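Reopening this ticket.

The earlier resolution said the output was attached, but the attachment link was broken on my side. Pasting everything inline this time so it's all in one place.
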Amino acid sequence: MFQSVSTDDGDTWSVPVPTPSLPNPNAKLNLIRLAGSDTLAVAYNHAGGPSPMPRFRSNLFVALSEDSGGSWHKVAALESTQTHATQWHYPTLAQVRLRSVDSRLQ
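Inline output:
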């Protein structure tokens, strides 16, 4: 996963840099900003790097960042099965009402 930042409403962007705390097997992810806060939430496949199956779309996690993506902490493992027969991909996040998804944010 890579991160690029714009400080001029999207006219220009910084050079993308890797996000090592969120390894991803080149699969779709979904990132949203939680309503009423600066907290980012991302659903993604936590795989890649030294994983025994680095290219498989398994280990579906949700992580939060409270510093515009500078650092992330995993808050939920939606699926942590790692087999060749099971894959979890194409996540989508939606905030259905204003409330905390992490007790540390209350």
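Reporter confirms the inline version is readable. The chain has no helices and six strands. The mean pLDDT is 79.
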